[in-house]
Amino acid sequence: MAGLAAAKALSSFFDAVTVLERDVLPSAPVARSGTPQARQVHVLLRGGLDALSELLPNFETELERAGAVRVRIGSQFRLELPGFDPFPRRDLGFDCLSMTRPLLEFVARRSVLRENNIALNPNCRVTRFLEVPGRDAVAGVCYEREDGQRYELAADLVVDASSRGALTLDFLNRNGSPPPEETEIGIDLRYATAMFEIPSLARPDWHAVLHRPASESGRGGLLIPIENNCWQVHVNYIHGAAVPENIGDFIASAKTLRTQTIHAAIKDAVPVGPIRRFVFPCSIRRRFEVLERFPDRLLPLGDAICRFNPASGQGMSVAAQEAVALKRLIEARALDAQPLKGFARSFFAAIQGLLAAPWATAESDFIYEKTRGQRPHDLSERMSFTAALQRLASEDAAVHRIMSEVIHLVKPSSALRDPEIVKRVSALMAASI
Ligand SMILES: Cc1cc2nc3c(=O)[nH]c(=O)nc-3n(C[C@H](O)[C@H](O)[C@H](O)COP(=O)(O)OP(=O)(O)OC[C@H]3O[C@@H](n4cnc5c(N)ncnc54)[C@H](O)[C@@H]3O)c2cc1C
Questions:
Q1: First-to-last CA distance in the chain?
Q2: DSSP state of 236
Q3: How far is the CA of 34 from the centre of ligand 1 (A)?
Q4: 358-409, pLDDT tens digit by residue?
Q5: Are 173 and 56 part of one and the same domain?
Q6: N or C: which end of the chain has fewer CB within 10 A?
Q7: Which protein residue has the closest C-alpha to ligand 1 atom 12?
Q8: How many domains does the structure of the chain reveal?
């Protein structure tokens, strides 16, 4: 997703953009081995949809035509939070689109490939970045095709959207540049996803359900409508042991959630396909922004910079927002004598605001005792603030809307630091001491 979004973002400023993808790309919306996580539920937040729509014309319409389901946030998306089962339902003024990750990727890929100067070359595994002799800069990439043949491709700018970021780290290492510091939040999140036909007699008063875990259990769940009249459902356990391996166990595990909403919906529904499982060890943030040196003509993007607890559904949206930031930055420098000089450092600075809210959400996993990593010194204050904010939002529609816009990455987290909101939240915090 980061690679596709970046290709489109760059296409107006370069003669040609080439995307090298190690997988053979399917001609239909189905999962593939290079993105194993794509078999799990993937939520596209409103902020991510807005960013992709800014890059890809008519993207929302195209997604809906392909089968994505429109869900109104607040009124049709049932939110279950500890202490609020459910959170008050209200129309918050915006929708999201719900679909499988393969469908989203398929529609995005089709849209990107309409651009005449973008080529997508499947079956090409990048093995390393090439350097400009005697300069701290990347000159292109070396890649391998399935038959083992090696090729080189020269480039003015190389974007590393390979998710792991290993190619960037390897280049820094070979080049004698220090690697970025990595901050990890170890959560050992275990995931299982299943699909069900939506029963013809099902008439729930919601279209989707998000069940956030309580700190005692760490068990969460999510049910979303997807294309072809199905529900995609996941259960996840932070620091959990095994996740269900078959449908019977999956349905039984939904029964162990705090509420019975998801269990009641799926217990008699017809399953579609097998259970898919995944283990996510830790959220990781690479601090490229504090490096004193970074090679020219190289730019990591998306998960290569930061990966978040997937249960918060932020990774694709942040990647899309980073691509929009990339487009704006390159636009602003287009007339400079050397537009790519020091480009990555400006980019890293520009995206810190985008990473702040999702990373703060990832840090909230420190409420679990077993979470590994450096606990923020103000964690308990943050948790009290969030608890009081949720109480205020449950009573006040305007605050509920702002809180949801921040969660959906439509507004920055600073929107919640509005003095009036802070005053009211502080009063609730003081009253609960
Ligand atoms: C279990 C799970 C659930 C998730 N749920 C959500 C969710 O609900 N919402 C959300 O927004 N995000 C979610 N995410 C995160 C999301 O999947 C990523 O953040 C998102 O895909 C952006 O990642 P990316 O584009 O950087 O990498 P990816 O999407 O992983 O893409 C990397 C691409 O690079 C290719 N590649 C890798 N190495 C090479 C190479 N050497 N040469 C050529 N090609 C290469 C791969 O084949 C792949 O196509 C979830 C993640 C997990 C693990």
A1: 45
A2: E
A3: 8
A4: 999 999 999 999 999 999 999 999 999 999 999 999 999 999 999 999 999 9
A5: yes
A6: C
A7: 315
A8: 3
